[in-house]
Specification:
By secondary structure, this protein is of the alpha+beta class. It has helices spanning 2-27, 35-62, 68-78, 104-113, 144-147, and strands at residues 86-90, 119-125, 128-138, 159-168. The protein contains five helices and four strands, in the order H-H-H-E-H-E-E-H-E.
Length: 170
Amino acid sequence: MRLRKVINYGIFVLVIVISCSLTTIARGFDIPPPTQKIEFAQQTSDLMLATLFAALTQEFDETTPQNVEQGKHSISLIFNDKNKDMRLVGTFGPLRENDRPYDKFERQAHALALAGEAYTSVQWVEDQWYYRRSIPLSNFRPECALCHTNYQVGPTSQQVGALMLRVPIK
């Protein structure tokens, strides 16, 4: 009888230990990355934004009424639909379906962008931590209206969407 109690107690303790271990392992994926890794991702995002803005500015400088179609094609290659780490997001046409906000972060960021506000967050997406940010975009260059014929000729303060950036946190 005593042996049976000891065995039952041992099994009970073993089940508790295994349960706690599995819970700890499973919860490990919910633990946010440390501050220094988030800061590294933020700095990477700053560099990425500077690079993209320089590329967009160059594109605007070279786009003319004579080569608008090539300019639109060029921008769509830079912001191609397979790249989830940098996206132009909006709800004003002309749009492809992929240009619309597609998750909670992008919907919230887009709404804030239309009010001229940036938004950042650290999020667990597709089994990876990411530093995510949005940069509001306005109709800030006359060339915007060359491709987006429904825009007023700019520059205007009209907020039109957001540039969404996502940097993996390693």
